[in-house]
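Re-run with default settings, no changes from the original entry. Doing this only to confirm the output is reproducible before filing.
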Amino acid sequence: MVEWKTISSLLLTLGPLLVPRLYSYYKTSRVQAQTSNVSVRPVPRHVQHAINILLVAAALAVIATFPQFQPENIITMTSSRLHTPIDVLFTRLAALRPDKQLTDFDNALRSRLASLDARCLYFAYGPSALAECPFCKSDEPATFFYYTLPARVFPHLLNLFALGLATSTAITGKEGGRWRTMAALAGSCLAIADCWMVGVYDWKGNARATRAEDLDFFYWRMRTIRGLTIAALNAGFSGLLWASSTNRLFVIPMSSAERLESVTKIMEATRGKLGAVGMIRNVTVRDENLRKQAETYWRREGEIMGEVMDEKEVVEGIRGALESGRMNVTMIEEEAKRYAQSIFATPEVSSTG
């Protein structure tokens, strides 16, 4: 098992190198998101479904680490030590059982816990490996590793299924599909790291423990670490989905084809609206009642605006603006002229000789 001192040394060595690079990558992504002319948007509905899947998977992984869902540890249950005689150990255990009777599982475990090596393997691989494995032998500890391998990998397979579902293009589109490869690699590396930690663990280390506090309940500790790391992985990818789908981070600029398609759609929508306005105008002009109502509206509009412009306050305000130079009539006329010319200008067609 890799000791905490080794991990601390690696963190102290690699930390000064990795932290600045990660921060630089974050700043680059942040600047790219701010300069890509893409506005922040709410989380799309389909991405929210994927985030919910990952958060539910993370919550289940955390719940699985609760003591109520952990296999029993008869050493801690009975307040025993590593060298407690087998009869005393199971007499204490029977006192905790209903009707003071051991279960069939307890009897199977009792027949395998007689030796010191068996108890060390119990701490390393859990109670089911000793009580239920038909081919495991204390003098061949690798058999316990192979027996517990499916149960150890199964949570990671379920998590890979959740990650694959959350990053599927059929559910989350391109927002989730861009993280699919990274999610698969991260989930697979987590499973490999889990198996490696169990494979290199010194299961005989507990034989040197002289006090109950020195015992390493590796099997139960690994179950807690496994659940918390899976939850952290899912929470991390849910954060990536949220940040990328809302254009806060990791924004991918639109390609030329995508920009052309977007502009084309906008032009088609505008053309449709202009056509609808033309149809309404045509109907209004052709229908006598509607035409009269339109004429009445504009006549009334002219009368109202004429009355407003004739008011003393308005006249004095306009005169004051002209005299102070705040209103440049010549500039306004030039801008109106240019605007009218731009509307009625005929596009020039380039000719090739």
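The two ends are 82 Å apart (CA to CA). Residues 4-35 form the longest helix (32 residues).
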